[in-house]
From TrEMBL:
It holds the Pfam family Hydrolase. It comes from Glycomyces lechevalierae. It comes from the Bacteria. InterPro entries: HAD-like_sf, HAD-SF_hydro_IA, HAD_sf. One of its GO terms (molecular function) is hydrolase activity. This is HAD family hydrolase. The keyword Hydrolase applies.
Length: 242
């Protein structure tokens, strides 16, 4: 039930009729778990162990057991606390990851190698519906941007898979010192694309963070969070186009 204050505000500021919504002319995408995903955790551990010269240690501990340990240590209160605001800068992200990895015996002392493995261009792979949707948008002349909470240049991953030329703008949190749902990220992306926010669609997997785009007039489409490795339902983005 609305409060007396809310009703007073509604009375003093009645809704005004608006014109029709403009057609979509630009689409913004989240990156992680929307367009791309990190390779399987066990594969990542094998790559790390090879690069760090710790293959024997991984085999002795067991890849599955180490993956479980990695997941469990992420839940430690001090580790979770270290993740707050980690994408506000490259330095904060690195510190947050090291705060986690120092609790994992296999990685402890080789955090630099683990971080390099995390950042490797081929450590992130596109979902199966990413390329077809990006190509379809390009074919329709729709401008495309990525708005993501991340700590390094994402173009290296798209270029690795031949998709870099299908994205026109990258707005990444570590460069602006702000995380979604801060309006500045979405506004900046629209400005870089030369698009009216009301004619722009934001696509992501987090209703709170990505849905925040609606606060400045964008429409938002949220796909299911963490569905595994299959399609994300990205093809429905094309249904928003004229």
């Amino acid at each position: 039930m609305s409060s007396l204050h809310d009703r007073a505000v509604d009375y003093l500021n009645p809704a005004k009729p608006t014109g029709p919504m403009p057609e979509i002319e630009a689409v913004l995408f989240d990156f992680s778990n929307t367009l791309f995903r990190l390779i399987d955790l066990e594969d990542w551990l094998r790559r790390f162990a090879t690069a760090a010269g710790r293959t024997g240690e991984l085999e002795a501990a067991g890849t599955e057991a180490t993956a479980r340990n990695l997941t469990e240590t992420y839940r430690l209160p001090e580790v979770k606390a270290a993740q707050e605001g980690r994408d506000l800068s490259a330095e904060q992200h690195r510190a947050a990851m090291y705060a986690w990895w120092r609790h994992v015996e296999l990685i402890r002392g080789a955090e630099d190698t683990a971080y390099a493995t995390l950042q490797a261009p081929d450590s992130w792979v596109p979902f199966p519906d990413t390329e077809p949707v990006l190509k379809a948008l390009r074919g329709k002349g729709v401008r495309v941007g990525i708005v993501s909470d991340f700590a390094w240049d994402l173009k290296i991953h798209l270029d690795r898979h031949g998709l870099g030329d299908l994205v026109d703008a990258y707005v990444i949190s570590y460069r602006l010192g702000k995380e979604k749902p801060a309006a500045e990220l979405f506004q900046t992306a629209c400005e870089q694309l030369g698009a009216d926010p009301k004619a722009t669609l934001m696509v992501g997997d987090n209703a709170t963070r990505d849905g925040g785009a609606a606060a400045i007039g964008l429409r938002a489409y949220v796909v299911p969070a963490r569905p595994g490795t299959g399609e994300r339902g990205l093809a429905h983005v094309l249904d928003f186009l004229p």
